[in-house]
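RECORD TYPE: protein structure
NAME: DNA-binding response regulator
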Amino acid sequence: MAISIAIVDNDALSLAALSQGITVFHPAVRILWTATTGMDAVKRCLSKPTQPEVLLTDLSMEDISGVAVCRAIMTKTSHTAVLGITSYALSHYVSQLAEAGAQSIVPKTNIKRICFAIDTVASGKVYSPDPAVIFQSSTAAHRRLEWNGDSAYHLTEREATILALCADGLTTERIMDALCISEATVKTHVKHILRKLGAKNRAQAVAIWMRSTSL
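PREDICTED:
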Protein backbone atom coordinates (compact mmCIF):
# COMPACT_ATOMS: atom_id res chain seq x y z
CA MET A 1 0.00 0.00 0.00
CA ALA A 2 1.34 3.43 -0.95
CA ILE A 3 2.59 5.79 1.75
CA SER A 4 1.38 9.35 1.24
CA ILE A 5 4.01 11.98 1.94
CA ALA A 6 4.48 15.71 1.53
CA ILE A 7 7.68 17.73 1.32
CA VAL A 8 8.36 21.33 2.33
CA ASP A 9 11.59 23.08 1.36
CA ASN A 10 12.04 26.72 0.37
CA ASP A 11 14.77 25.74 -2.11
CA ALA A 12 12.93 24.84 -5.33
CA LEU A 13 15.88 22.93 -6.80
CA SER A 14 16.32 20.89 -3.64
CA LEU A 15 12.59 20.22 -3.54
CA ALA A 16 12.61 18.94 -7.12
CA ALA A 17 15.66 16.74 -6.47
CA LEU A 18 14.11 15.25 -3.34
CA SER A 19 10.83 14.54 -5.10
CA GLN A 20 12.53 12.84 -8.03
CA GLY A 21 14.97 10.86 -5.89
CA ILE A 22 12.29 9.54 -3.54
CA THR A 23 9.98 8.63 -6.43
CA VAL A 24 12.73 6.66 -8.17
CA PHE A 25 14.14 4.97 -5.07
CA HIS A 26 10.81 4.22 -3.37
CA PRO A 27 7.98 3.61 -5.88
CA ALA A 28 5.57 2.76 -3.04
CA VAL A 29 5.66 6.37 -1.87
CA ARG A 30 3.03 8.77 -3.22
CA ILE A 31 3.91 12.47 -3.02
CA LEU A 32 0.66 14.18 -2.10
CA TRP A 33 2.00 17.71 -2.46
CA THR A 34 5.07 19.89 -2.08
CA ALA A 35 5.38 23.35 -0.55
CA THR A 36 7.99 26.08 -0.38
CA THR A 37 6.88 27.75 2.87
CA GLY A 38 6.49 26.34 6.35
CA MET A 39 3.16 28.06 6.95
CA ASP A 40 1.67 26.52 3.81
CA ALA A 41 2.84 23.09 4.96
CA VAL A 42 1.27 23.53 8.40
CA LYS A 43 -2.04 24.61 6.87
CA ARG A 44 -2.15 21.61 4.53
CA CYS A 45 -1.16 19.12 7.23
CA LEU A 46 -3.98 20.33 9.46
CA SER A 47 -6.59 19.94 6.72
CA LYS A 48 -7.87 16.36 6.40
CA PRO A 49 -8.17 16.35 2.58
CA THR A 50 -4.48 17.26 2.22
CA GLN A 51 -3.09 15.53 5.31
CA PRO A 52 -0.15 13.22 4.47
CA GLU A 53 0.98 10.23 6.49
CA VAL A 54 4.50 11.67 6.62
CA LEU A 55 5.76 15.23 6.23
CA LEU A 56 9.38 15.81 5.25
CA THR A 57 10.38 19.28 6.39
CA ASP A 58 13.59 21.15 5.75
CA LEU A 59 14.78 22.65 9.01
CA SER A 60 16.11 25.97 7.73
CA MET A 61 13.44 27.95 5.87
CA GLU A 62 12.78 31.63 5.35
CA ASP A 63 9.32 32.06 6.90
CA ILE A 64 9.41 29.70 9.89
CA SER A 65 11.86 26.97 10.87
CA GLY A 66 11.22 23.28 10.36
CA VAL A 67 11.23 22.90 14.14
CA ALA A 68 8.37 25.42 14.37
CA VAL A 69 6.53 23.61 11.57
CA CYS A 70 6.84 20.35 13.49
CA ARG A 71 5.62 21.83 16.76
CA ALA A 72 2.64 23.54 15.09
CA ILE A 73 1.54 20.28 13.49
CA MET A 74 2.19 17.91 16.38
CA THR A 75 0.37 20.18 18.84
CA LYS A 76 -2.80 19.84 16.74
CA THR A 77 -2.72 16.31 15.29
CA SER A 78 -1.09 12.89 15.54
CA HIS A 79 -2.16 11.80 12.05
CA THR A 80 0.97 13.10 10.32
CA ALA A 81 4.43 11.89 11.30
CA VAL A 82 7.16 14.51 10.89
CA LEU A 83 10.59 13.74 9.47
CA GLY A 84 13.21 16.50 9.64
CA ILE A 85 15.70 16.79 6.77
CA THR A 86 18.75 19.03 6.71
CA SER A 87 22.01 19.70 4.90
CA TYR A 88 23.64 20.68 8.19
CA ALA A 89 25.05 18.36 10.86
CA LEU A 90 22.19 16.44 12.46
CA SER A 91 23.52 17.33 15.91
CA HIS A 92 22.60 20.96 15.22
CA TYR A 93 18.88 20.14 15.28
CA VAL A 94 18.31 16.67 16.73
CA SER A 95 17.49 17.62 20.34
CA GLN A 96 15.21 20.55 19.58
CA LEU A 97 13.43 18.59 16.85
CA ALA A 98 12.74 15.68 19.21
CA GLU A 99 11.46 18.19 21.77
CA ALA A 100 9.15 19.66 19.10
CA GLY A 101 7.56 16.24 18.52
CA ALA A 102 9.23 14.92 15.36
CA GLN A 103 9.72 11.21 14.75
CA SER A 104 13.14 11.34 13.10
CA ILE A 105 15.81 13.43 11.41
CA VAL A 106 18.02 12.42 8.46
CA PRO A 107 20.48 14.07 6.06
CA LYS A 108 18.76 15.75 3.13
CA THR A 109 21.33 14.40 0.67
CA ASN A 110 20.92 10.71 1.57
CA ILE A 111 17.86 9.47 -0.35
CA LYS A 112 18.33 5.90 0.87
CA ARG A 113 18.20 6.95 4.52
CA ILE A 114 15.27 9.26 3.84
CA CYS A 115 13.28 6.38 2.34
CA PHE A 116 14.21 4.12 5.26
CA ALA A 117 13.04 6.80 7.69
CA ILE A 118 9.78 7.29 5.76
CA ASP A 119 9.00 3.57 6.10
CA THR A 120 9.94 3.63 9.78
CA VAL A 121 7.83 6.61 10.88
CA ALA A 122 4.91 5.66 8.62
CA SER A 123 4.70 2.36 10.52
CA GLY A 124 4.35 4.22 13.82
CA LYS A 125 7.96 3.77 14.89
CA VAL A 126 10.75 6.29 15.40
CA TYR A 127 14.36 6.52 14.31
CA SER A 128 17.05 8.47 16.16
CA PRO A 129 20.54 8.99 14.72
CA ASP A 130 21.74 9.79 18.25
CA PRO A 131 21.22 7.10 20.94
CA ALA A 132 21.18 9.83 23.59
CA VAL A 133 18.14 11.54 22.03
CA ILE A 134 14.76 9.85 22.31
CA PHE A 135 12.12 10.56 19.68
CA GLN A 136 8.46 9.77 20.38
CA SER A 137 5.77 8.33 18.15
CA SER A 138 3.39 10.88 16.65
CA THR A 139 0.68 9.76 19.08
CA ALA A 140 2.86 10.21 22.17
CA ALA A 141 4.35 13.49 20.94
CA HIS A 142 0.93 14.93 20.14
CA ARG A 143 -0.40 13.88 23.52
CA ARG A 144 2.52 15.60 25.27
CA LEU A 145 2.36 18.84 23.29
CA GLU A 146 -1.43 19.13 23.22
CA TRP A 147 -1.78 18.43 26.91
CA ASN A 148 1.01 20.81 27.87
CA GLY A 149 -0.61 23.59 25.85
CA ASP A 150 -4.13 23.09 27.18
CA SER A 151 -3.51 21.78 30.68
CA ALA A 152 -4.78 23.63 33.71
CA TYR A 153 -1.83 22.18 35.62
CA HIS A 154 0.65 24.57 33.96
CA LEU A 155 3.53 22.17 33.49
CA THR A 156 6.64 23.59 31.92
CA GLU A 157 7.72 22.13 28.58
CA ARG A 158 10.52 20.17 30.27
CA GLU A 159 8.13 18.81 32.91
CA ALA A 160 5.69 17.71 30.19
CA THR A 161 8.54 16.00 28.35
CA ILE A 162 9.64 14.12 31.46
CA LEU A 163 6.05 13.09 32.22
CA ALA A 164 5.70 11.78 28.65
CA LEU A 165 8.90 9.77 29.06
CA CYS A 166 7.60 8.36 32.34
CA ALA A 167 4.42 7.34 30.51
CA ASP A 168 6.60 5.54 27.96
CA GLY A 169 8.14 3.54 30.82
CA LEU A 170 11.55 5.20 30.99
CA THR A 171 13.48 4.96 34.23
CA THR A 172 15.22 7.90 35.88
CA GLU A 173 18.51 6.73 34.38
CA ARG A 174 17.13 6.63 30.84
CA ILE A 175 15.52 10.04 31.24
CA MET A 176 18.89 11.37 32.42
CA ASP A 177 20.54 9.97 29.29
CA ALA A 178 17.79 11.14 26.94
CA LEU A 179 17.75 14.73 28.17
CA CYS A 180 21.41 14.99 29.25
CA ILE A 181 20.48 16.07 32.76
CA SER A 182 21.48 14.90 36.23
CA GLU A 183 19.59 12.54 38.51
CA ALA A 184 18.91 15.41 40.89
CA THR A 185 17.39 17.47 38.07
CA VAL A 186 15.10 14.62 37.02
CA LYS A 187 13.95 14.14 40.61
CA THR A 188 13.32 17.86 41.02
CA HIS A 189 11.18 17.96 37.88
CA VAL A 190 9.26 14.86 38.99
CA LYS A 191 8.66 16.46 42.39
CA HIS A 192 7.20 19.54 40.68
CA ILE A 193 5.04 17.35 38.41
CA LEU A 194 3.62 15.43 41.36
CA ARG A 195 2.87 18.65 43.23
CA LYS A 196 1.14 20.29 40.26
CA LEU A 197 -0.95 17.21 39.48
CA GLY A 198 -1.67 16.36 43.10
CA ALA A 199 -0.24 12.89 42.52
CA LYS A 200 1.46 10.62 45.05
CA ASN A 201 3.81 8.93 42.59
CA ARG A 202 4.78 8.72 38.92
CA ALA A 203 2.20 6.07 38.09
CA GLN A 204 -0.60 8.22 39.48
CA ALA A 205 0.73 11.28 37.63
CA VAL A 206 0.72 9.33 34.36
CA ALA A 207 -2.84 8.12 35.06
CA ILE A 208 -4.01 11.71 35.62
CA TRP A 209 -2.29 12.75 32.41
CA MET A 210 -3.88 9.93 30.42
CA ARG A 211 -7.34 10.86 31.71
CA SER A 212 -6.73 14.51 30.88
CA THR A 213 -5.89 13.65 27.27
CA SER A 214 -8.82 11.21 26.96
CA LEU A 215 -6.39 8.57 25.68
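COMMENT: The first strand starts at residue 3 and ends at 8.
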